[in-house]
Each structure stands twice: as C-alpha cells, then as structure tokens.
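Residues pack. Consider this:
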Amino acid sequence: MVKKEKIWSILVHLSMHMWEKEYDTLPFDDKMWEDIIRSSEKSGVNMIVLDIGDGIEFGSHPEIAMKGAWTRRRVREEIRRCRDAGITLIPKLNFATPHNKWLGEYRRMLSTNTFYRLANDLIKEVYNLFEKPEYIHLGYDEEDARHVAHFQYAVYRQKDLFWHDLNFLYDCVDDTGATPWVWSCPLYRHTEDYGKHFGPNDAVLSPWYYNAFNPEHWTPVESRTEYVAYYNQDRYKDLGIKFVEEDPYLVDFRNVTPDAIKAGYKFIPCASVFNRCDWNTYDLVEYFKNLCPDEQILGYMTAPWVSTLPTNESLQFWEESFRFLKEAKEAFYQ
C-alpha cells in the first residue's frame, strides 16, 4: 500500500462575513491571493482551505452572494490554477451560529426545514463546483452562549438539537462522497456526547491550539497584555495564573487530547500565529507527531485569521504562517 502524503494546509478567507463586521464588497485582494499561491508552493503547502461564506455566486442560492463575489467560472479557474501549483482547494462553509453571518436572513431560520434544504443545497453545490473534493469543512466551532452573547440576534444550538444538526450536516457531506471536516469543538467541549453520536471515522477533526506546549516555551502573562486584554479582560488576574498556557481552555485541551487519540479519531491539528506565540506551530506539530499514531494524523493546518487585504499586520501574519509551518514540517517530517 502506498503511504498517503500528509496534508499541509492553510486557511484562507474568501469572505470575512463569519463575524459581525460588515463589508460592502468582498474583502479579497487578487494580488495577495497570487502571493499566497506562490508562498504555498515555496513552503510545501499542498492544500488551501477556502472559507467561502458569501464570497461566491451560488447557483442554488444566488441571493447569498455579496458584491464582488467570485463567479462559478472564477472558482473553477482558481481550482485549476491551484492544481497546476500542486495545491488542492478545499471548500469550507461554516454553519456554526457564531460564524454564520454569511447566510444573511437564513441565519435566523436555524434548524428549520428551510435551513436544512439550504445547507444540503450548498454542500452539494460546492462538492460539484470544487470538482469532487475529498473533504468539505463545515466549521461548527464555538457554538455556545458566550460566543453569541454580544450579537443583536443571539441564538445557538444545544443538547439534542446540537447533535441532530451536526449529524444532518455530516450526512449531507457523506451523501456527496466527501468526508466531513470540522473544528474540534464538538468533541473537545462535549467529549462524552460526541462519542455517543459519532465514531472515529465519521469525520476529520481539527484540534485548534494557538499557544505553546513545551513548558520551556510558555508565555508569561505579563508579556502578553494585548492578547490577555483581547481574550480575557481581567479574568487572568482572578485565576492567578503566571503563564498564558495555564488558561483553563488550554489545560482542558491538553487533558482531552490523549483520550481522543486513544479513541481513534482522525486529526488535522491547526496552529495559528494569531495569538503571537512564535513556538505554537513547532510545538503543535511535535506534540501530535510524538503522541499520536501516524495513521491518525492526516496532516496539519495553519490559520492566520486575517483577510487577504494587504495591511502591515496581515502581511506579517501570512509570512509567519508559511515560515513557521515550513520550519515545523522540515523539523519533524523531512
């Protein structure tokens, strides 16, 4: 049996309407896109996960597209351009309630027959439009009261409805022949319940962790005032922690991961430079390579979490994302 090549992927946002900020036209720079493809080639990235949102003109639901959205012809052209560069383009449609602004008025029809028809239509369409991709990423992260609390219209799924809708989305992807791919939140935040509903082969999971693993690389809280203010306000003072990596979410992540590995789930772990931790990508690749059987690690991903618009910050994030992923790949997989 020929051993399958590892995935080395990067998340690219076509639309940015996964959050509350409004854009009048598609916040996507064509020159930056060309640079991303070239940087992918140079750094060994063989997959781009394209977060579509309302960034393409869906044939089944043209009312969703925002101004400047890619035409269906443009999508096909970009798939071929990437393929010529040795890169697979994978569609991502985030159906999580904190990140579904791209659905427009449909976001207020959650878990209705209208929503189920819409989701099924869009999943089938991207499968055909993206020329039968191996995976379709469904998002499904951060679905809880805290992440929707600041919205004008706050809604989220919980209990049986949470699992019903996730199962429905998995089935929609399965029906196309692709494999569902989601963030790790359903498993990591609801470990027992996820295991009751889904087995190790039902979907690929991306455990996302954006800080250091190795205690030698842990970051003192006082050195990360901007990060702490952005994510935690004064919560760290109440916790009395000295290092960012003592954050309860990060501790829980490290506690859950070994059992999830033993259960046989398939992973594409995700790093990011967004939290400004220079050791994150290196530590994450080392952690999973050492802890997880090789056949359960399908590859790795990095997520800059910025648009393609060429600001000083976004340019830095893109450059670091490619550089750190390349360094980690060479350190542990060459």
